[in-house]
Model the fold of this input.
Amino acid sequence: MIIGVPKEIKNNENRVALTPAGTAEMVKRGHVVYVQATAGIGSGFTDDDYRLAGAKMLPAIEDVYAIADMIIKVKEPIASEYPLIKKGQILYTYFHFASSEELTKAMMEREAICLAYETVELDDRSLPLLIPMSEVAGRMSVQEGAKYLEKTYGGYGVLLGGVPGVTPAKVLIIGGGIVGTEAAKMAAGLGADVTIMDVSLKRLRYLDDIMPANVKTMMSNEFNIREMVQSHILIIGAVLIPGAKAPKLITRDMLPTMRPGTVMVDVAVDQGGCFETTKPTTHDHPNFVIDDVIHYCVANMPGAVPRTSTLALTNATLPNAIQLANKGWKQACTDDLPLRKGLNVVEGKIVYKEVADAFDLPYVPVDTVL
Done:
């Protein structure tokens, strides 16, 4: 199979979808890998690194899309890429379709085979290709939140861990999955007073067992959220419903009840965000203020630490990429149920129900396209 790796062109997206090591694994299996020039620079990989691994370099993104049977990316295609996508071409990347009707309809129109990292799902309902970036984003959410709490950025002006004689800052984390767990670890490590909320009592019991003493657990519901946002000055949204839009758990009317300079970090922004006032931001312009509350809603947070993120991501995505290249998408998805769940849009049809439901579009069961 001919594999194409274009350079990411989303704002400040410095990750790359295939490392030189991954390239070598593809090449030794008889596949041809074309990489766009400088695609790996942001993650510390030179064009020569790829050439030594057996890749062929192409100068322009148009060249990569034109020649490849399968495109491997990190982020969803943006509007300038839509016309480059060929009918029947495999696109293996993060899509987050439920947050963008425009993207969904564009991929239907192009009749591509869209495999979304974020909906590949194991029997235990874990999301193996989303976990690495959730780990990165969860840890970064506290790092970024702590920064914007500084008065320089308009924040409340507190140190998360306080100092002897001064109480630590209160951090509220809504969602006890991978993102929330990693955020709680980081905030707790910095000495903050942390509360983590979830709707699963089983998950809260687990978190209560593993977390240090400065992390408390609480059932997530509207009453508790309304009460907690009044006293917590860093709020992290870490809610995920696989493949579907995130629920709006912090509403517009809650903002005036918060302390001026409170920081809200919405890690669920790729899935539409779990704050009603969320709108996607970029690393160039990462935050905005409503009612004296700072919103940090960068849609590709891990792109700011591309070396770590690229290595973590490709560790997870490469085995499936090899399956797709070796067998073709139909056979690979027939043989591997978790990978089959990654199929979202196939040859103009939506085959992932939550995406169809998000926009009231027709749904076709995935088995009918295999």
User: Anything to note?
Assistant: The mean pLDDT is 96. The chain has two domains: 2-120+306-369, 131-304. The chain has twelve helices and 15 strands. Residues 131-304 form a domain with the Rossmann fold fold (CATH 3.40.50.720).
